[in-house]
Amino acid sequence: MRKMYLLGIAISLSSPSGWAQTPPSALPPKDVFVADLLKQMTVDEKIGQLRLISIAPDMPRELIRKEIAAGRIGGTFNSISRAENRPMQDAAMRSRLKIPMFFAYDVIHGHRTIFPISLALASSWDMDAIALSGRVSAKEASADSIDLTFAPMVDIARDPRWGRTSEGFGEDTYLVSRIAKVMVDAYQGTSPALPGNIMASVKHFALYGAVEGGRDYNTVDMSLTRMYQDYLPPYRAAIDAGAGGVMVALNSINGIPATSNMWLMQDLLRKDWGFKGVAISDHGAIIELIKHGVAKDNREAAKLAIKAGIDMSMNDKAYGEELPGLLKSGEVPQSDVDNAVREVLGAKYDMGLFADPYVRIGKAEDDPAELTGESRLHRAEARDVARRSLVLLKNQAQTLPLNKQAHIALVGPLAKAPIDMMGSWAANGQPAQSVTVFDGLRSALGEQGQLTYARGANITDDQKVVDYLNFLNFDAPEVTNDTRPAQVMIDEAVKAAKQADVVVAVVGESRGMSHESSSRTELDIPASQRALIDALKTTGKPLVLVLMNGRPLTIDTQQQQADAVLETWFSGTEGGNAIADVLFGDYNPSGKLPITFPRSVGQIPTYYNHLSIGRPFTPGKPGNYTSQYFDAPNTPLYPFGYGLSYTNFSLSDVKLSSKTLAPGATLTASVTLKNTGQRDGETVVQLYLRDVAASMSRPVKSLKNFEKVMLKAGEQKEVQFILSEDDLKFYNADLKYVAEPGEFDVQIGLDSENVQQNSFQLL
Ligand code: BGC
Which residue numbers delimit the Fibronectin type III-like domain (predicted)? Predict the structure, then answer.
């Protein structure tokens, strides 16, 4: 066997990769290894490493492999199997320095098995369930040779007009930060170098969820205190958890695009937060600096981005074409490019690719016989996580759970919607493998009861909207309308309803309505479906609304018409089974809203933790000259943290171990939670704090802790939360993270509105 020495490491040339047989421990430490490699690289090879290329199905593979072998591509995304990626890695192993490629993908809420959308995962408030979804996703993606995911997406969203609200974990800084860490840990495991784990690249840095008016890609203008207090902590939490990558946002921040923002990328991310990983631009974001109006051409755009510290250019033209000239002219110093290359190589080292470029690709003989095979799915996990994410919003007169002996009329355009069930960003999810609500009810009933189905309405009859939703899907349009007249469909549904004991209407949005580039000015259920609900109401039959949607909708009228409302979001491959579990009471719902439901678009923003103001609106005592709308109620339709169960819970008063808290000490707040109903069930006990008088106006309440508690019928439990000075800290006007002495209210409840209160003094 011939051996050569490269970078001081013995490499077996008989292996396909050269490095493939080098165990990780044999590599020198990362800094030494990367510095050595960097010294050997030509300028072109360096620039090549900064290019992340999207692999479309129709791209000429031969050409891509040539480019890779010439050292002109650092990584790809959207190629999603070992068989596809192996030849590309082989090409990299033919390149002069054999620097491995990495393969990335948007694994957002599942890879082959699709879990509920992120907003739904957050609704579970169940960190174990959320972690399980991340672990399964990492395992499945890794088994398909994916090294890095563009996730978690932790943009705080307080304006549900924004379609990407569905992709994040809601409106609350604390909850989203907790989940950010859980997700990074789940993806990366003990190390992103190991097979079965993948590297996390947190996005979209920063503040993308605050785009003006909820219009995607728009401007963000925000005070520094709000940024530090409310919007930045989730990214920070992901980075502190060790996320290897950061994806940079498409928006500008106070006039400066994130992609060219020196303060954001250098001062905050690198210097203050000490981020050591790779910073990746969003898709085409570098040349978008021209349209942002901060660069006159591609050359200037590339210069601004590399100077800001964008290491990799996604779907690159700018870096490949412009950096050679910029380096030659001295406009960009070599050190800027070297810094970027160092981060890319460092990330590859951390992904375990220098130790074994085939760590996730494996051997051809071990490739799965059938990529989309049933045996590759994790259905039990998906079903369990999905049912934990469902939120019961209304249940009048115990309409739910349904009786399995009943005659059920199942209606609505989303009752048999396998594509929509997966939600947007469904990675490799196969519609044919997703369980619809119809499938779920059918299999739960078996031989019992009776199930009659009628579509009842199209998702929307607005052809312009249908065309928009199908814009990118020419081959197989996602939204296909039934061509029968609307009234014919409604009549059929009404007939089915009249013959049934109970009506279950599955209504809401198609998945494309809650997606990137899917902002809405209205958040109503589309008109065609509202007409269906109106007609069903006239039958007088008990009406259960099963909502499928990726953002809060304005459903005040429909929730009044309904006897029960179950929010199911888009619940993934096993959604239909999970929904059936809850509808029939085989699982007692325990989800809580991670985002406020407004009554109308005019109320937006409606987030619960707004700052105290001088003339607050006081429910129950409305008066002139207080902050309110006079033409509609001021409270939200459903508050943050809200969700019912089939049992009832009561909470005692809040007991505090002391009325004072000294710096460095702790204080215990406790309540007794009792299951006062007839069924075992779980709920989320939520602790909120209010800083009564501080150097700045502080939120009326902020979530600081929570615990999901399971209690048998009749059982009670004392739930304790330990508070320390850290829980009281905030960013003051000088951006110092401080706790100020004075009074604090402790509010504990089963949602953010109905709370028990006590107070203490920070000394
Ligand atoms: C999105 C990112 C995504 C990227 C790659 C962009 O359009 O904004 O969130 O990771 O595409 O698919």
Answer: 683-752
Q: Which residue lies with its CA nearest to atom 10 of ligand 1?
A: 150
Q: Is 315 left (phi over 0), alpha (psi -120 to 50) or beta?
A: left
Q: What is the mean pLDDT of residues 533-553?
A: 98
Q: What confidence tier does 473 reach under pLDDT thresholds 50, 70, 90?
A: confident
Confidence check: pLDDT of 21 > 50:
no
Spatial distance between the Cα atoms of 85 and 207, rounded to a whole number of angstroms: 33
Can you identify the CATH homologous superfamily of domain 199-359?
Answer: Glycoside hydrolase, family 3, N-terminal domain (3.20.20.300)
Cβ–ligand 1 contact at 167 (below 6 Å): no
Residue 66 Cβ < 6 Å to ligand 1? no
Distance CA 571, CA 382 (A): 9
- Say how far apart CA 428 and CA 434 lie, in whole Å: 12
Report the percent of the chain where pLDDT is more than 90: 94
The Cα–Cα gap between 443 and 448 comes to: 10
State if residue 322 touches ligand 1 by the CB under 6 angstroms criterion: no
What's the rounded Cα separation, in Å, for the pair 357 and 365? 17
Quick one: which atom of ligand 1 is closest to the CA of 425? Answer: 12
Asked if 238 and 181 count as a contact pair (C-beta separation under 8 A), the reply is yes
Is ligand 1 within 6 A of the CB of residue 387?
Answer: no
Q: Domain locations in the chain?
A: 199-359, 382-603, 649-762
Q: Which amino acid, 69? A: A
> For residue range 338-393, what is the model confidence (pLDDT) as tens digits?
999 999 999 999 999 999 999 999 999 999 999 999 999 999 999 999 999 999 99
Q: Which atom of ligand 1 is nearest to the CA of 78?
A: 12
Examine the residue annotation and report whether 384 is marked as an active-site residue of this protein: no
| CATH value of 649-762 in 3.30.70.1710, 2.60.200.40, 2.60.40.10, 3.20.20.30 | 2.60.40.10
- What architecture is the 382-603 domain classified under in CATH? 3-Layer(aba) Sandwich (3.40)
pLDDT in tens, 582-613: 999 999 999 999 999 999 999 999 999 999 99
Note whether 69 and 91 are within 8 A (CB).
yes
pTM, two decimals, is 0.96
For 744-756, the pLDDT digits (tens) are 999 999 999 999 9
Q: What is the pLDDT of residues 91-145, one digit of tens each?
A: 999 999 999 999 999 999 999 999 999 999 999 999 999 999 999 999 999 999 9
